[in-house]
Amino acid sequence: MNDKFFPFLVFIISLAVFGWGCDGEMLSGDELFTIYFSQWKVRDLVPILFEHNNIPPTFEYLLHHWLQAFSTDAFVLRLLPVIFSAAAVPAIFLIGKKMGGYFIGGWAAFFFLLCPFQMEWAHLLRSYSMMIMGASWSMYFFISFLENKKNNALAGWIFFSFIAASAHYLSWLVIFTQGLAWLAIPGLFKKEDLKRVVLSFVILLALSSPILFYLIKRLLFTASEGTYIQPTEHLGEVFRELFKMVSPSVYMLRLLILFATWALLTSIFSYTFGLKKKLVFVFFTISLFTAISWGFTMENENVTAFLQNKIILYLFFIWVWATILIWIRKSNDSWASKIIVLWLVVPFSIMFFASFKIPMFVDRYLSFISPSIILLIPLIFRGLPRPAYSFTIVSVAIFAIINFQFFVDRPTHPDQIMAQFKKFKKTDTPAIWAPGYCDLIWTYYYNREIFENAQWQAADTLGTRIVREEGYTVHKEGIRRQLRNEGIFIANDTSLLDLDLSMCSELVFVDGHSEYVYPNNGLRAKIEKEFGPPVEEHTFDTNARVTRYARKGS
Q: Residue 37: phi, psi to the nearest 5?
C-alpha cells in the first residue's frame, strides 16, 4: 500500500473509532464553561479567557465558529475534538514507523485507539485533544527534519508547534524537550543546521508572543493564589499519574504491570545468557520498580509510608535520569527512540516537581506526553526474544480490547440531577445551587434557552461580592439574573447567599459536593438550622444531593 495513502487510511479509521458514541455521555464540568464562552462574540471572548482562564482561548475560538455553523448539541460539538484526536493517530503511526518500522507504528496506533484516556479526551470539549494532536505532529516533523534536513519539515514543525502552544501553555515543554534532545543526543547537533533551527524558533516565538505573556501572568497568579487541588508529594503519585494515561482501570493497570515485570525478567534472562536481542535497561528497570511499588501501594501500609519518603522520591528521579543519560550516550538504539523517551521523562519530571508548589492536574496538563508512553509499549516488547514478544504483545492487545470503553462513564449526571430538581421545585419555591462553578452545567440541563440566550450584563449591586466569589463570575451574570428571576440563587458559602431564608416556607437545595471545594461553607448547616431535617432527599453517585426542605405546617 502507498505510504502516503496509509496515514490517511489510519485517520479515517481513527475518526470512526473516536466518533463512535460521541453523545454517549453527558456534558459536564468545564465543558459547559467552554461552550458558554464560545457563544460570545470574539471581541469579548478572547480578552476574558486570556485574563481568567489557565489555557489560551484558541479552542474556544474554533468552537465559536463550529457552534455558530451547527448547534450546541453534545454530539455535534464533540465532533471537533474527535477530529483533533483522530488527526493525532497518523502522526503516532509515522513516528513509530521511524522508530522501528510498521511493527512499532502499527501497534502504537492500535494501542492509542484503544486507550480509554484518549477516548475521554476525544469526547471532551476542552483543548487537550488539540494539544495532543499538535504535539504529536510537532514531534514527527522535528524527527523528520533531523532525518532529511528539508525546509518543509521545519515549516511543518513551526505550524504544529504553534497549534500545540496555542492549545495549552504547557505545550512549550515539548519544544523545550526537542531542543534538549537535539543538544544532548550524540550526532544530532550539526553546526550547519544551527541557523535554520534558530530562525524557525524565532518565528515560532514571534507567533506565540502574546500567549507567552499570559503564560507567565497565569503561572504567577496560580503560584500566589493556589488551587483547590492537593499537591503531589510522594513516589506513589508518580506511577499513578503515568498509568492514568494508559488506563483508568486498576485491574488493567495490574495486568500491564504483570506483563511488564514478566518482560523484564525475560529480558534479564536473555541478557545474562546472550539470547537474541538485548533490551534497553532503562525501560525495564523502571518497569520493575513500578511493579513492586504500585502492586503493593494500595494494600501495604509499610510500602505506602516508604513511597511517601521524599528522599526516596529524589533518589528515584536521580536514578532514572542517570540511567537515561548513560543510555543516551552509550546505547546503539535509534535516536528517534531516545527522543521519544525524553518526550516522556523531561516534561513529566518538570511538571511533577512544579506541582509541589503549584497544585495541578498533572495527567490532564501533561496529556501531550501520552503518545510517548504508548509508543514505548511496542518498543519495549519488540526487544523480547521470540516467541515471548509475540505472546506478550497479543496478550496486552487482548486486555486493551477488553478494557476499551466506547462510552466513557464520567461520574456526573447533570440531566438526572436537574430532573430531580424539577420534581422538587414548585413555581414559587426558592432554590439554592452550590457550588457556584456548577451554574453553567445545571443551567444547560435545566433550561437550554437560558443557557444559550443569556448575554453578558453589567454586574448589579452584587458585583463586588461576585468578583470575590470567582474571577469570571461577573461575566456569567446574564445567566444568574435569569436564574434569580426563577427563584434560583447561586452561592459558594453563606456570606454570598442573597436569599433571606426566614422568608421562605420551602426550599430546594442542590449541592454538588460543595464542601470539597469550599470546606465548611456553612450552607447546609444554615439551611437545616432554619428548616430542620430534610423532607425529601435524593443522593447521586457523584455526592451531589437534591434536597427539599419545608417548615412544619407548610
A: -75, -25
> What is the chain's length?
554
Inter-residue contact 112 to 121 (CB < 8 Å)? no
Q: Any residues with CB less than 8 A from the CB of 267 and at least 6 apart, and which?
A: 278, 279, 284, 383, 384
Across-strand partners of 506? Answer: 550
Give first-to-last CA distance, the chain, whole Å: 76
Answer whether residue 384 shows pLDDT above 70: no
Where are the alpha helices (H) located in 404-471, listed in sequence order? 414-424, 439-446, 448-453, 463-469
Query: What does the mean pLDDT of the chain come to?
Result: 77
Least confident of 183-197, 356-370, 411-425, 428-442: 356-370
* Rounded-to-10 torsion of CA 193, 195, 198, 201: -80
Rounded to the nearest angstrom, the gap between the alpha carbon of residue 117 and the centroid of all alpha carbons in its chain is 8
How big, in percent rounded to 5, are the helix, strand and coil portions of the chain? 70, 5, 25
Question: Cα-flanking dihedrals φ and ψ of residue 297, to 5°?
Answer: -55, -45
Residue-wise pLDDT for 287-329, tens only, equals: 555 555 555 454 455 555 666 666 777 777 787 788 778 778 7
Output the CA–CA distances (angstroms, integers) from residue 388 to 275, 291, 292, 379, 397, in the order listed.
12, 19, 22, 14, 14
Distance CA 452, CA 35 (A): 9
Q: In what order do the strands lie in the sheet with 431-434?
A: 488-490, 431-434, 506-512, 544-550, 536-539
Q: Where would I find the beta strands (DSSP E) of 297-362?
A: none
State the Cα–Cα distance between residues 245 and 259, nearest whole angstrom.
17
- Res 43: pLDDT: 77
At 121-138, the pLDDT tens digits run: 888 888 999 999 999 999
Distance of CA 399 to the CA centre of its chain: 23
Q: What's the pLDDT band for 2 if we cut at 50, 70, 90?
A: low
**Residue in 78, 87, 59 with CA at minimum distance from that of residue 169:** 59
Instruction: Please list the alpha-helical segments (H only) found in 355-413.
Output: 362-365, 370-382, 388-403
- pTM score, two decimals? 0.80
544 neighbors 510 (Cβ within 8 angstroms): yes
For range 253-273, the mean pLDDT:
52
Structure confidence at residue 219 (pLDDT): 63
Rounded Cα distance between 249 and 119, Å, is 14
One DSSP character per residue, 180-199 reads HHHHHSTTT--HHHHHHHHH
Q: At what angle do helices 58-69 and 74-113 cross, to 10 degrees?
A: 120
Per-residue DSSP letter, 433: E
Kind and range of the H or E element at 313?
Answer: helix 310-330
User: Per-residue pLDDT for 55 more than 70?
Assistant: yes
CB 235 within 8 A of CB 313: yes
